Amino acid sequence: MIDKATLDRAVSAGILDAAQRTALLDLAASAGPSVALGPTSDRLSVDDQMRLVGGGNDIFVTVGIVLLFSGALFALQAVLPPDSMLLAALLAAGSWVVAEIVTRQKRMRLSSTLLALVFSAAVLTLLIDFVGQQFSLPGAINAFSLLALRDDALPIGLILAGGLIAASAVYFMRFKVPVLAAIVAIAATGLAFLAAVLVYYEQMINGSIAAPAPDQLAQVVSNALSIPLVCGFVVFAVAVFLDLHDRERQTVWSDCAFWLHVVSAPLLVHPLFILATGQDVLSGRIEPGMSASVMLGLMIAGFVLVALAIDRRSLLAPTLAYFGSVGIYYLVNSAANTTGIPPFALILLTIGAIVILFGAGWQRIRRLIIRPLLPTSLLERLPPIKA
Fold first, then answer.
1. Own/partner pairs for 349-353, CB < 8 Å, 24+ apart?
2. Where are the transmembrane segments (predicted)?
3. Same-domain pairing of 272 and 174
């Protein structure tokens, strides 16, 4: 990027004349937000670019899409039989047709995101209807009926998750809508969790491991959280890879990374929160002694540093929201605490201060903390730090 001061010096040195300087400024202004002239410190962070809404017309078209598909849904439900697979197929096809104009030609961000979600929901409904016709599903879903499905569980999971992933991939190749990255990550995580549960159940059936006693269920459920934790790290690693592939955040892959960070944050935070606070996963009770509060504070600091390093508030925002909501829940349900200020109250105060402070000066804080903390070789691979 060349700022205005550099252009002024170029005019003074005779490299450019005044007319050429004006023409360059006009060209930069017409190029949109991806090209900007001016002091670097005055430009927005690459993570601050409006990725979800393209403007007032985008919102206007989004309202039209909601009305269009709501009307189509009610009309088709009145005309088609209740169990017809044609309903979901028509909605999926309709969202594709509308996307050819709204997404393919006009590149409206919010409208395109909504259409991609409509398409994904229609495809998932279509797959569920297909599974219902191909497999003998129980009328009531409970623990015993699910156990009866164990032989068909993996094929059902592969059809639902695999079909959704395949459909999302085809839609993405056509329209390049970033939110589909989140759909794929969620479907893959669900399939991985199902596979792990089936392996554990088969080991119990074969006698490889003993069935847990009632007092061991909490430990079993706690161990099961390792599945979303591992999936969260995988999704996070893919998002970071995409970020490093596009340090300036100029391509659709960076927008995909944004959604992957949104998905990875709760997958990472919830298991780590339980490990740090000693929460009972069955009852939800927390024993927030000083050690738990210290661990929680260290977790927050770790997430803050990682978010600053990769320049992603999309990772930090759901993390702080989770900590804050759980902390508020604990405070409401611990009115009988007579030890003074609960430790989580201090956590909430810290989170509130972090949100306000970072919202006001994200790039400055990033420059002050990350630049002296990390070696130059690593900084050169991370998103650039604004001067």
1. 350/297, 350/300, 351/300, 351/320, 351/323, 351/324, 351/327, 352/324
2. 59-79, 85-102, 114-133, 153-172, 179-201, 221-244, 256-277, 289-308, 315-332, 344-362
3. no
Residue type, 215: D
Residue 378 lies in a domain: yes
Residue of 235, 376, 251 whose CA lies nearest to 314: 235
For residues 93 and 147, membership in a common domain is answered with: yes
Backbone phi, psi, residue 338, to 5°: -110, 20
85 and 107, same domain (yes or no): yes
Say how many domains are in the chain: 3
Structural domain of 377: 229-387
Could you tell me if 296 and 375 lie in one domain?
yes
**Domain co-membership, 34 together with 140:** no
pLDDT in tens, 91-103: 999 999 999 999 9
Report pLDDT digits (tens) over 333-368.
Answer: 554 454 566 666 766 777 778 778 877 788 888 888
The answer to the question of residue 224 being in a domain is no
Whether 58 and 180 map to the same domain: the answer is: yes
Q: How does pLDDT run across 259-272, given as a tens digit for each residue?
A: 999 999 889 888 88
272 within domain boundaries: yes
Q: Is there a domain that residue 218 lies in? A: no
Q: Which residues contact 27 (CB under 8 A, 6 or more apart)?
A: none
Instruction: Indicate whether 345 and 204 sit together in one domain.
Output: no
Q: Please give the model's pTM, rounded to 2 decimal places.
A: 0.78
Query: Whose CA is closest to 249, among 40, 58, 33, 104?
Result: 33
CA dihedral 245, 251, 254, 256 (to 10 degrees): -120
Residue 164 corresponds to which tokens in the numbers above?
């959704």
Nearest by Cα to 127 from 84, 160, 81, 93? 160
Segment 173-178 long-range contacts (CB within 8 Å, at least 24 positions apart)? 174/99, 174/104, 175/99, 175/103, 175/104, 175/112, 175/116, 176/252, 177/99, 177/103, 177/112, 177/113, 177/115, 177/116, 178/51, 178/113, 178/252, 178/255, 178/256, 178/258, 178/259
Residue 184 CB: number of other CB atoms within 10 A?
24
